[in-house]
Amino acid sequence: MSKKKVLIFVDWYIPAFKAGGPIRSVYNLVTRLSDEFEFHIITGDRDLGDDSPYGETNFDVWQKIGEANVIYLSKKNQNLKRFKSLMKEIDPDTIYLNSLFSFTFTLVPLWLKKRFPKAKYVLAPRGMLGKGALEIKKKKKEVFIALARLVKLYKGIVWHATNKKERKEVLKAFGKQNHVLIADNLATPPVYSFEKIAKMKLESFETKRFLFVSRISRKKNVDKLIQWFLDISMEHTNFTLDIIGTIEEKNYYKELLDLIGKNSAITIQDAIHPKVLVNNYAKAHFFCLPTRHENYGHVIIEAFSYGCPVIISRRTPWRKLKKDNIGWDLPLDKPEKFISVIKECIEMDADSYLQMSERASMFANEHIHQSEVKISYRKLLS
Questions:
Q1: What residues are paired with 269 via a beta bridge?
Q2: pTM of the model as a whole
Q3: Residue 151: DSSP 8-state
Q4: pLDDT tens per residue, range 249-277
């Protein structure tokens, strides 16, 4: 029996990494379900924010990348005519769109929907309908959603929500008549055993290492995080905070550098390749993400998988973490709680920490290998 064909449109795909979670979501989807589906991916020719295309990559031709057939389109070929030709060539059973607002890789393929009536269209909003996400460029997004409803842009598609909360967000934005299926994101397993991770963490336990990994933008509240650590540095000096991520807003980045000033315990750098980043996770003691909104948060489950208890906002699906002894989910309107928890982490002894760290690792392992997720994706893509 031949496999069902799934055609995925996505702005960035490996070797891209700067866009974070959405790339990882598609890569893990292909990796975990390639034994059941034939995947074809149409994507761009450069990473997020880059002026130049990928080096040593063939453009505008299909090629085998891992378990998928991928075509990296040059700028001149990212258009309606080329998309139509490629879609006709593949004749997919399912067309999967990996963004809500992408003009090129979502709205253009949607425009061609009537030309491919037999294909099932699936759209993943990737957290873009969450309250925190909608607060950014609020007016533009409100106008877009109103127009999309008016012209019935998303009529007949299946929405891919990663949890019940995101399902409610879709129905609120586009109406209760929409068809929404829930399939949790597929996470990446760690490359090191917990024994090796624990050894790396204990090598310099006297100085607690805190790690932030995400896009460096206002949505992630990086400025607040830095200010909390600056306040704490008046009382404690045995810590470091490493901030790593794609620098999206240049002015905001400059504000952060000015805020850090000469404090050598706090560093900030552009995104680094996932193969290198795993060592940052493995060496870090705690992970911080005071985000305004995440519909999933690949960085959170990756932190757990490398034995990092997390200090995050309550604007993510990861809740009741203290009860499971794997971290803290805290209200953004109470910064004193974040400061108190960070101090608690700095003062934590090795035995208490290792218990937390191992529990976080076990929690991630259980989540990564849950069998019901693959069942959800079969339903979503079939």
A1: 244
A2: 0.85
A3: T
A4: 889 999 999 999 999 999 999 999 989 99
